[in-house]
Amino acid sequence: MLFVGSCNGMLRALDKKTGKVRWAHDIRNDGEQSQFHGDPLVTDELLVIGTDGKIGHVYAFERATGVVRWKYRVDERGVASDVVRLGNSLYAVTLADELLCLDLVTGKAKWTRRSGLSGQDSRVTSSPAVSGDHVYFGGRDGNVCALDAQSGKLIWSGDLGARVTTSLAVRGQDLYLGTAKRHLYRLDAGSGSVLGEIGTEAEPVSHLITTDDSLLAFLGDGVLASLDLSLKKVQWTQEASKEWSSARPYLWRGAVLAGDRRELVAFRSTDGARQWTYKFPETVRGVGTEDEVLYVDTMGGPVFAFAPGGQP
Prior knowledge:
CATH architecture of the domain at 1-121: Beta Barrel
Structural class: mainly beta
CATH topology of the domain at 1-121: Lipocalin
Strand order of the largest sheet: 5-6-8-9
Helix content: under 10%
């Protein structure tokens, strides 16, 4: 199945081969919420996803049927981050800048942690990252911390002096993130010490993607950049015709994918060379990937199954 959340409050499970709806759920029945902004977590049995609006929830749906196994209510505008997992614990960040740790089986909160600017900024928050037995959280107050994943006990924290504007990404012992002062940082995941940093031409936003030799990031609305993992240099950049419309860059078969309004563009990850483009009838927003097929979600509503080199 293919899972698609739209900003009219509907979550749908589609048959990947035919596009037919297997099940659907309207989150507006649970209050003033209508949006999905983060990537879900998919387990063998469940689909776990956050919602936002005036309120929000973290929902656990049974994958096969769409039945709500449990839901966790968030009163302060909900959850717009990705949901990530470590063992039987789930982690997400609310729009009040609170890190949640929920039990996968019951949906009950194990512990929570707020940043110093809770409730003072309506912009989408950073998604957390997990590695080993730690969870990493970057707040709007500029503080980045590592917590014990099970207890929530603080391991280390550091103040970068500006709001964290990207998801956190862990690769080996390195932790990557961007801030509002137009900087990307590489931190030691074990201690929080700064190992590298680089100024950028615009504020890093959205999700950071790591490959074997590079860090991929959106800089502002219009630049896609590849940097070396040490953050000593920018390897290549590509500009959108106006602004990148996809929620994030995507990595697929050695290519970096990004939505440029109604076009989906693929760049070679090693040097940024344009490999192919395909124009859709609506603005490209989200991309799901498989070995041979891309699933393209558009702002106007239609979802396309697309095989590059063929027709959707």
